[in-house]
Amino acid sequence: MAEPPILLFAVVIIGVAVLLQVWCTSRARRMVEEWARICGFRLQACRYCWIRRGPFFWNSSKSQMVYRVTVRTPEGKSRSCWVRCGSYWGGVFVEKVEVRWEDELI
After folding, report:
1. Nearest to residue 45, comparing CAs of 25, 28, 70, 66?
2. Using one digit for the tens of pLDDT, what is the confidence trace for 15-61?
3. Which of 11, 13, 71, 80 lies in disulfide reach of 102, CB 3.0 to 4.6 Å?
4. Structure pTM?
């Protein structure tokens, strides 16, 4: 049977990992929402893409978060894009948002 300190250590490590993931996800989502607000867009849909990363597939790190986003422009048009949050090495600890519009990828 495992020693209580070892079990406690394992529970703490798992808890910290879960809290870190929740924090990173919520921070990236806030970054997308702030980007949309600053640009004058209204978010219609925002889906985290952990496998299919669109135009960011080959050049993103695991610490960056990619979203598939649909916005309503101030003119009333609906546009879709891919949004990558964070830097390659710093992840979402770095306030950085990159956007690739669907209609500009062709």
Report:
1. 70
2. 999 999 999 999 999 999 999 999 999 999 999 998 889 999 999 99
3. 80
4. 0.86
Using pLDDT thresholds of 50, 70 and 90, give the confidence band for residue 5: confident
Tell me the pairing of strands 65-72 and 42-48.
Answer: antiparallel
